């Protein structure tokens, strides 16, 4: 019996919730998966799984065994990664969770850039906008400052930026360029809608005047819970919206958007990498996190050059 393979197969069966799903994931015949788990139970002399036609459930012995097994398999993978890294390219898969905006505008570019350096590493991105993200199901999660993060999770700052007001030249030609915050009352506002809430007052901050703050009740002609939708509406001339500066480098460079009411900003944003545990972090994951941080910070520096001080 290949004991290591049997251990890996048993863990996969539990993670996938069925023998058939584990077989597909591992590219093995279902009969082989069933035999390997049975061989492992026979070797240990205990039943690890309760099997019915509808579901699988771990026995008490299975729970104890799996708890220890996960760490052992990660240690084995780490040992292989560390040895191979001396003479070979890093290999394997990095599974990343991210909300839509971070996935599209930060993670996608960072992943492509990373794979130019390490073509043997696959990046698997899962896009989900959850208030309590399932960080423990992934190698790392790229999260905003609004996410609720388990205090036991390792959090590494990626980048800090700001949100600013912007509009298309066509919109400003029709409606004029607001010269002060009160002038926004005469404009068409496009607002982000927080989950299960209505947009509250707009908070404006002047970073050149000791962070002087104003709050204005500004009605919106369009609200959405998706940043890219608001960005597209702004590009189409629908009004003035508040956007992370990271998203505006290209549109401002090509002239399709202009920043308005500088130097006022509408908030400070924070992006972090949440890692379930530093103890069992594979080499490829550590390298990817380092690269992601460097990539995001280089982009922010480019943003400052294009948009000006924030």
UniProtKB/TrEMBL annotation:
UniProt domain HTH lysR-type: residue ranges: 1-59
Keyword field: DNA-binding, Transcription, Transcription regulation
Pfam family, one: LysR_substrate
InterPro entries: LysR-type_TF_proteobact-type, LysR_HTH_N, LysR_subst-bd, WH-like_DNA-bd_sf, WH_DNA-bd_sf
Superkingdom: Bacteria
GO molecular function: DNA binding; DNA-binding transcription factor activity
Family (UniProt): Belongs to the LysR transcriptional regulatory family.
Protein name: LysR family transcriptional regulator
Organism: Ramlibacter aurantiacus
């Amino acid at each position: 019996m290949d004991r290591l393979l049997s251990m890996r197969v048993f863990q996969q069966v539990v993670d996938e919730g069925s023998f058939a799903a584990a077989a597909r994931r591992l590219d093995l015949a279902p009969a082989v998966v069933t035999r390997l788990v049975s061989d492992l139970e026979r070797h240990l002399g205990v039943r690890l799984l309760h099997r019915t036609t509808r579901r699988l459930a771990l026995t008490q012995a299975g729970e104890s065994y799996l708890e220890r097994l996960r760490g052992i398999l990660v240690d084995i993978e780490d040992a292989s990664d560390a040895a191979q890294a001396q003479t070979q390219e890093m290999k394997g898969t990095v599974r990343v969770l991210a909300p839509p905006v971070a996935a599209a505008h930060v993670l996608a570019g960072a992943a492509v850039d990373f794979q130019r350096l390490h073509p043997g590493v696959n990046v698997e991105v899962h896009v989900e906008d959850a208030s309590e993200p399932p960080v423990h199901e992934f190698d790392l999660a790229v999260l905003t400052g609004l996410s609720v993060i388990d205090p036991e999770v390792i959090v590494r700052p990626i980048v800090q930026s700001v949100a600013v007001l912007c509009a298309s030249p066509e919109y400003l030609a029709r409606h004029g360029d607001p010269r002060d915050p009160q002038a926004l009352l005469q404009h068409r506002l496009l607002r982000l809608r927080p989950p299960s809430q209505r947009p509250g007052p707009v908070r404006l901050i002047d970073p050149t005047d000791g962070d002087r703050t104003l709050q204005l009740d500004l009605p919106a002609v369009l609200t959405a819970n998706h940043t890219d939708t608001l960005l597209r509406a702004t590009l189409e001339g629908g009004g003035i919206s508040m956007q992370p500066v990271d998203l505006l480098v290209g549109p401002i460079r090509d002239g399709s958007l202009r920043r308005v009411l500088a130097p006022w900003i509408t908030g400070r944003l924070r992006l972090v990498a949440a890692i379930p545990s530093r103890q069992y972090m594979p080499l490829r994951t550590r390298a990817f996190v380092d690269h992601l941080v460097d990539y995001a910070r280089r982009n922010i520096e480019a943003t400052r050059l294009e948009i000006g001080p924030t």
